[in-house]
Amino acid sequence: MAKSRRKSENGFFEDSSEPVTLSPQDERTLGSIYGLASKITTLVEQDSDPALAIPARTLGNVSFNEEKRVLQMGSKTTSRELFNLSQAKSFMQTTLVASGAKRLIEMGKTTSIRGLYYMLKHDIKPSKEPTFHDQGECDPIIEDCEVLLESLREELHLFADKRGDMVGNIKIVDSGDEIDCSRMGSGGYAIPSIVEPSVIQFKECKAKFVLHVEKNTVWQRFNEDKFWKKHNCVLTHGNGQPPRGVRRLLNRLHNELGLPIYCLLDNDPWGYYIYSVIKQGSINLAYESERMATPDAKFIGVRSRDFERCGLSEGVKISLNDVDRKRAKQIADYPWFVHKKDWQREIDLMLRNGFKLEVEALVSRSISYMTEEYVPRLLKEGDFLD
Amino acid sequence: MAKSRRKSENGFFEDSSEPVTLSPQDERTLGSIYGLASKITTLVEQDSDPALAIPARTLGNVSFNEEKRVLQMGSKTTSRELFNLSQAKSFMQTTLVASGAKRLIEMGKTTSIRGLYYMLKHDIKPSKEPTFHDQGECDPIIEDCEVLLESLREELHLFADKRGDMVGNIKIVDSGDEIDCSRMGSGGYAIPSIVEPSVIQFKECKAKFVLHVEKNTVWQRFNEDKFWKKHNCVLTHGNGQPPRGVRRLLNRLHNELGLPIYCLLDNDPWGYYIYSVIKQGSINLAYESERMATPDAKFIGVRSRDFERCGLSEGVKISLNDVDRKRAKQIADYPWFVHKKDWQREIDLMLRNGFKLEVEALVSRSISYMTEEYVPRLLKEGDFLD
């Protein structure tokens, strides 16, 4: 396999002018892509019809692995054939996305899924038929390639939106720059989209745990109160549903550094769902759960009991609506919640309360109640939901 | 004026346990709040009805200041009276928000507008009438207080959502931590919501300009290609419409360090609008334009001419819809665009093209075309829209 190349073999776009050195991970991913290509050429050489076996990304092919405690894909596949009128286009698109990933890896560059779409979009001459009509046609093909190549999107050199910041007693190296997250002021270190070991290495970690909060505004409160300094931890947020980079980083902080992950989320079905995604993975993207999910993550709050227990003022209650009630029941039925009495009680109490509570509701006690009393007490008592 | 206090005068929530030292800015803001309070008490002592003169935040009271080239509020005010059945509640809310800001400043703490809402929300005993029904009732009162006290929201110790990152040849000090933005890896320094001089100081700047891009995905491309190193600049993004912290930081980078600001935005009405907000300020928040807007900012692209000039492939065109056409015409009529021939031609060409172009469309040329050819050429030629 060529370690660098200066000329693109198809001239579709120019390669980087700098030869690049591939990381071991890049070598592995490229190996998968070459493997895929050689399967197809072997079929051609054998006079068989070219076809790909795409692992089925349907709910029926997703199950909860009780032992590993993550969502997992089953072994069902569907065939995608070149000589099949209804599949020829998606066959072409699949190999096109794989070839795009190959070129990105060889150039040592990354792009967004939007960038890849533009990079691959062109008319198939002499027709005026475009390779992709729109982004919506490209995205599922990218996911197909991820499962087909057993590679995370990040390993295909594709990045997602980034949002989410980190501060705390940890030093990391990001792309060769040493970053001391205990010296990041009020702004913090912006967690990138790709946090694979080839980009980010952990240099030194004194922190004993990670506190992950849902919102950047809550994160700002915890950072301003230097919570992470007093309690020797790492403080992260994901601006709502955490993006892939944040989830992967939590996974690495837990698995490589042994840090417990505590999540401070709203007391509502959306907060439960965020916890579920951090802990068990996302149903849509079950194939990446083992590297994206953190089954040991704990839910520290806000809890349905807190209105009374914390003596919050009446005004902080937000009434549940029908969607909330429906979502709460769905989540209670998730295989990883259905047998957990604590979670059943938690969700049931929210439904009986008839209201939800945001983390910011704790401000009604005092501006730093959440950082100085609420979280410290729960940490001390080890009072979490699992 | 007390420089610190350990007891809240009304016991509504506990003050910080640490006495704080007020910054000169905090002293000024507190002075405005005391001034407001003493106007009211003077009226009471004179047996007059307590009233506030609230500057009108309506379109009719906003004009474009040709000399300063920013949106400005006029001098119209409306009276808000305590002994007026329809105004009593908003009178109470206004003084309540001002007192909340006072307490935050005295504690040396900041909170989100959501936090302030929860902090101030309570039933007015013995009635069950809440001080605020919802956040929507609180937000305009916060804006009233900003104009009434001639203080930016940040000076009232309120922060907004933060999003937007920075890298480049600049060293800053954020809350006492020195941050070298040329050593921030792939993630970058996360721009906080409050970037006032009391929080952020510029320590050393070698950069010669700022490139501000619309999207974090484009920012990642520029950062990965180390554009800021090759071209000795600062690289920022605001994840779409830049939040207050990013706009204020651009303003400070320009006014205090003399850095030109170049904006790389989509070729569509939304991109034009973002430019307009960065340059002239937001119509809704015209009272803060002088400190939030940067009238010298330049628009570097993407331009309506670029499809042809850059030889982009057909597939990157996105058809204009009716909303786009309507918005484009509105923007062309803005007082700060209406006399600019270049802008009229630019918007007119987009309308005649019938399509818009995203920055990522440049990827159809090559993955680093935007960082290695497009922007460098325009910078070299000084080819901007003003």
Describe it for me?
The structure is a homodimer of 386-residue chains. Chain A is α/β, with parallel strands linked by helices and 386 residues long. The first copy, chain A, folds into two domains: 136 residues, Arc Repressor Mutant, subunit A; 217 residues, Dna Topoisomerase Vi A Subunit, Chain: A, domain 2. Chain A is built from 14 helices and 17 strands. Chain A has a six-stranded mixed beta sheet, sandwiched between helices. In chain A, strands 9-8-11 form a three-stranded antiparallel beta sheet, with no helix packed on it. A two-stranded antiparallel sheet of chain A has the order 1-4. In chain A, helix 1 runs antiparallel to helix 2 and helix 2 crosses helix 4. The N terminus of chain A is likely disordered. Chains A and B meet through strand 5, helix 3, strand 8, strand 9 and strand 10 of A and strand 5, helix 3, strand 8, strand 9 and strand 10 of B.
Main sheet characteristics of chain A:
6 strands, mixed
Please state the structural category of chain A: alpha/beta
Query: C-alpha Rg of chain A, in Å?
Result: 23 Å
Helix content of chain A: 25-40%
* Global mean pLDDT of chain A: 91
* Largest interface, C-beta within 8 A: A-B, 66 and 66 residues
Say how many strands of chain A there are.
Answer: 17
Note the beta-strand portion of chain A: 15-25%
- Our measurement of the CA-to-CA distance between the termini of chain A, rounded to an integer number of angstroms, reads 46 Å
Examine the coordinates and then state which fold CATH places here, giving the name of the CATH topology of the largest domain in chain A. Dna Topoisomerase Vi A Subunit, Chain: A, domain 2
General shape of chain A: globular
CATH architecture of the largest domain in chain A: 3-Layer(aba) Sandwich
Number of domains as seen in the coordinates of chain A? 2
| Uncertain spans of chain A | 1-16
Number of DSSP helical runs of chain A:
14
Q: Give the assembly state of these chains.
A: homodimer
Q: Going across the biggest sheet of chain A, name each strand in turn.
A: 10-7-13-12-14-15
**What is the CATH domain class of the largest domain in chain A?**
Alpha Beta
